Amino acid sequence: MNAHEIDYQIYGEEMQYVEIELDPQEAVVAEAGSFMMMDSDIKMDTIFGDGSNKDNSVLGKIFSAGKRILTGEGLFMTAFMNMGQGKKQVSFASPYPGKILPIDLSEKDGKFICQKDAFLCAAKGVSVGIEFSKKLGRGLFGGEGFIMQKLEGDGLAFVHAGGTLAEKVLAPGEVLKVDTGCIVGFTKDVDYDIEFVGGIKNTVFGGEGLFFATLRGPGTVYIQSLPFSRLAGRVLASIPRGGKDKGEGSILGTLGDIVGGDNRF
């Protein structure tokens, strides 16, 4: 085993968190902002890159950090190591409603491909990199589903899916068409591409985007019902224009401004 062996427990339903149990000198790495709580004997340390042992040279660490920039993440990750004598716990929380999916890379032939913002945390030693696309269509039209992260190694990793999580096992040659933002991740043998929706009515009036992803088996695909981009779009659309929140444009809204002390008049 190259990665640290860790035990875990996932708690909650809609807003889950994962509690990871560390033996002495075991460590877990996580994205900034996912930390929830930890025992007192756990040491938190900021590391350059993903903290894997894949390439410990200075150039290797710079390249690892550079890949994180390409996926839209920061240069640094946070490592949490148990410096005590007994077992200790550290917990990481979901960024928004959904499910936490544990991925045992030793059962996925050492590689799992996921959305760039799906990764939550992993055992130290797991490599977090970028999955480069060799197809022009993905680069031009992939959008939010184009830049994918790859998790490599033989340890446990945890990814987050928004809303409800669906697992689809594809037979050889079987094709699944998915909204690009709804992809959580898939195993390394799944072939991934972008396809044009087609049709003038679909393009102009469909409201579902011009392209969707095609995933061809064999392999396992994980789909989320609520991608963050969709959630953020609904939140932004519900914000009243001009910053008002009392029925803008109505008589009741104007009366509310006067009673509420709005001094614009």
TrEMBL record:
InterPro entries per UniProt: AIM24, AIM24_sf, Trp_RNA-bd_attenuator-like_dom
SUPFAM superfamilies associated with the record: TRAP-like
Endpoints of the signal sequence: none
One Pfam family, short name: AIM24
Protein name, per record: TIGR00266 family protein
Species, as recorded: Maribacter arenosus
